Amino acid sequence: MSSAATPRSQQRWLLTLLMGTMLLLCLAPSLRLLMEALSGLGLGSEAPLWRVLASPRTWLALWHSLYTGVLGMLIALLLGGLFAFAITLTDVRGKGVLMFCFMLPMMIPPQVTALSWLQLFGPASPLLNSLNIAPALGAPQPLHSGEGIALLLGIQSAPLVFLALRTSLVALPRELMEAARISGARPFQVWRHTVLPLTRGGLVAGGAMAFVSNLGNFGIPAMLGIPAGYYVLPTLIYQRMAGFGTGVLAEMAALSMLIGGLALAGVALQQRLLKRSRFGLIGHAGRAHDLSLGRWRGGVEAGLAILLAAVLLAPLLALVVGSLVPAMGVPLTVESATLEAYREMLGRQGVTRRAMRNSLWLAGGAALTLMVVCLPLAYRLQRLPQRWQGLVLSVIELPYALPGVVLAVACILLFVRPLPLVEVSLYGTLWLIFIAYLARFLLVGLKPVTASLAQLDPSLEEAAQLAGAGLWRRLSGIVLPLLAPALFAGGLLVFLIAVNELTVSALLWSAGNETLGVLIYTLDQGGDSVLASAVAVLVVAMVALLMLSLNMMASRLPRGVIPWRD
Amino acid sequence: MAGLSLAGVGKRFGEHAAVSGLTLDVAAGEFVALLGPSGCGKTTVLRMLAGFEQPSEGHIRLGGRTLSDASRHVPPEERNMGMVFQSYALWPHMSVADNVGYPLKLRGVGGSDYRRRVGEALAMVELAALAERRPQELSGGQRQRVALARCLVASPAVVLLDEPLANLDRHLRAAMEESFRAFHRRSGATLVYVTHDQSEAMALADRIAVMREGRLVQWSTPETLYRQPHSEWLAGFIGQGSVLLLPGAVPGRWLEGDALMAAAEEAGVQGRGPVLVRPEHVRLGERGGLRARVERAVFRGERYELGLRLADGSALLAYSARRLAEGSTIGVTLDLGWGLEPEAGTPGRR
């Protein structure tokens, strides 16, 4: 008996060790940050935390963060709410295409969004110049302002509101709306009296998510705000780190704690609201409703299409036009159109190829590593008691919920000194970015796997166990084949997000270790917006391609794994 | 009060015809049941009556008013109907009284008139004490009564009930059947009741429309449906009984006494037709014209149910007051049989 028990307990021990390692990876940076931020409190007013709190720049950036975050949230609520209600409740046509297009901004990296909007407006806009409607030279770029930042934040986070609201709309039983109609309510009254009160929870939760996402966004306020001297908390941290290096780490840790606390409060609020708004709804749910719009249908469809054209197509068009002109300010004509920028970026500039290679290695490596880790991790997690499961999941969620800048500062703090014992320094190498990505995207890779595993009938594995299969045998022969689509989807999602990532790498990169996200940002900051546009066009094409390939796997995945599909 | 009439109503979902060629005339104030196995289209008919679906062909009228036809479609909110859903469909964000009063609010009733009518509706279903509760705090039967009160409050011309007892346990069902009967008596509304449970339909309805695969099979009173079903399938669907293949059987005709016995004893003759024999028309005795072997005897409380096998191999169901040994032989006399429409093709294959 005892000889049989030993390998089994060894296997479990291995799984537990893996889980412990991943938890340490997720928790250590935040703990180190907390320690640093609270260090030297004994110094009184000279402590880093007090110095940060005493600085008027902190409070101005905090105010800017809140202003753009809240304004962006309102825009996201408006856009996301409109699309969610229209697509889920009514009989508009082309729902699949509308949804895909609406979700695209969430997957396009923020610095690309910002760049494409910059190409759309302003006196140097290649698109406006080509159409001969550009404002006079010297006219201000309207996007270099708090409102401009908020608008783009809103567009980028609107899909979050859409998703949260759509989830609660789909869960709304059809009968509740039908009962209202047969009671004499017109479609608008059904929406006002029944749908809105019952889905308010989803709306508010989506708003909270949008706010948290806006708070942590770096790409948009960096591209739009820094040139105008408009700083929010993440860009303030970036600016100070870029200017003073590791010397101001303690202060930056305090700043990070401030914004991290704000973000976590938002997450907690959102989870509380979601829990409270859950009514015990019974009836036939799980499918879209189709309130007939009658003669209004064509108008609503046109309105949605125009809105999508304005927030998605026009900037992307401007981006493409911007990548085809020989220089900023030159109008695009048949004669002036040139692929020179692409040739320059792909052929001559070593930095582009290096950045692309770095990003592909980082994203591919992180995706593969997480795919390998996630199956045993999800398996061990499922066998934990309920209470521990929740706790472990919140630890795993921590690096994802924290703003990227905060995680970056935390990782610098953790690895700025050479590792003990081996005396190897990770600071300034790609490995530091890699480790940060592992921590940040573990949740993204894990979620589809846990969802799939929860759907798996335990008797499948029990039958294999009775047939004599050991743990590794069961994992590889039964669980892995059944979870493979989810595992792969998780890996693809990680790759999709990581390959364009800017926020974490903006603080962690060093010469020779550029990533694609950093490249677009630095090119644009250096005035090479045509070259930046060319890279951005390639990035958008890659994103759309990856999303489409995920789409094709949709039928083999549990619901909700692919964010832009039901 | 106005009668409800459906003429040639059909509904297609893509290629699939959920309902076809349905013609029914329901008198004002009548209590009718739509009965059929699941997937027979009865719920689609109800949803067309409510206006949630538009018929692909035919028309629906209420009194002189056309509710739906190929060109017109009156939306549900303008039909002055009420509906009780299988899941009750009570709004969880409103109190019981608000749920009940909602149709009145939409009709612009307010003030003391509103309070009086909500009070009356709640009193009628004996829930006045629970007016301020939330629906989630009520039991299944109470929720169903709230849904009834919500229907009642606006005095609709037609009340539609979609399997309203499916989610309740057996004891509650009997009590709720009684509330439906009382509700019908007091409101005087036309009631259309969808169910797959034949005993529910028989107990409640004035007339029953049996549907199968989207078509009307028979439209008659419960008594006629039980005694004189049209077809072999219907005979098997409603009540218990056996179908014997007998010579000289004519669809829609009774076979009685000696004629029936003579047909049953004649074997090997061409031109047989199906005849329904209910167990209460099978007499057992030592003598009797037919010999049968007892294959099983099942105790049902008030009596035993016997599965018999006749000499020619056909099965026969009978009741008995006492247990008979399985395997023993017994004499059988048939009193009454009903000639059935033979099933096209193999029964149940379509």
Task: Give a verbal description of the structure.
The complex is a heterodimer of chains A (566) and B (350). Chain A is built from 23 helices and no strands. The longest helix of chain A has 37 residues, at 2-38. Chain A is globular, with a radius of gyration of 25 Å. Chain A is 74% helix and 0% strand. Chain A is mainly alpha-helical and 566 residues long. Chain A has a single domain (11-35, 66-283, 340-556), classed as Orthogonal Bundle (MetI-like fold). Chain A has helices spanning 2-38, 48-54, 56-89, 95-107, 110-120, 126-130, 146-170, 174-182, 187-216, 219-225, 233-244, 249-276, 297-324, 340-348, 350-382, 386-401, 404-415, 430-455, 458-466, 471-498, 503-508, 516-525, 529-552. With 350 residues, chain B is of the alpha+beta class. Chain B folds into two domains: 4-227, Rossmann fold; 232-339, OB fold (Dihydrolipoamide Acetyltransferase, E2P), CATH 2.40.50. Helix content of chain B is 27%, strand content 33%. Chain B has nine helices and 19 strands. Chain B has a six-stranded mixed beta sheet with strand order 6-7-8-3-9-10, sandwiched between helices. In chain B, strand 16 and strand 17 (315-320) form a beta hairpin. In chain B, helix 2 (96-106) crosses helix 3. Chain B is elongated, with a radius of gyration of 24 Å. Mean pLDDT of chain B is 88; it is low at 346-350. Chain B: One of its GO terms (molecular function) is ATP binding. Chain B: It comes from Billgrantia pellis. Chain B: This is ABC transporter ATP-binding protein.
